Amino acid sequence: MVRILVRERESIQEAVRRFRKVVERSGLKREMRRRQYYEKPSEIKRRARLRAERRALNARRLLNGGR
Question: Do residues 50 and 41 touch, judged by C-beta distance below 8 A?
Fold first, then answer.
């Protein structure tokens, strides 16, 4: 759970802005989006494999001078 304390003489807008930053840094928003719909374990593995393949391809490109 994310909590912030509103500081003395801090406007509501500033407190909300700080709250949004804390939520963003905590990864809560991303986690909520991820859990919004059920995803089959095979789809999770497939996405992870594709992400790893893209990472490897980009690493190879960097080693070969961008070719």
Answer: no
Question: Is there a contact between 4 and 18 (Cβ–Cβ < 8 Å)?
Answer: yes
Q: Each residue of 15-27: pLDDT tens digit?
A: 999 999 999 999 9
| CA dihedral of residues 58, 52, 50, 59 (deg, nearest 10) | 10
- What pLDDT is recorded for position 66? 65
Q: Are 2 and 21 in contact (CB under 8 A)?
A: no
Tokens of 19: 């709250």
Closest among 30, 34, 31, 3 to 18, alpha carbons compared: 3
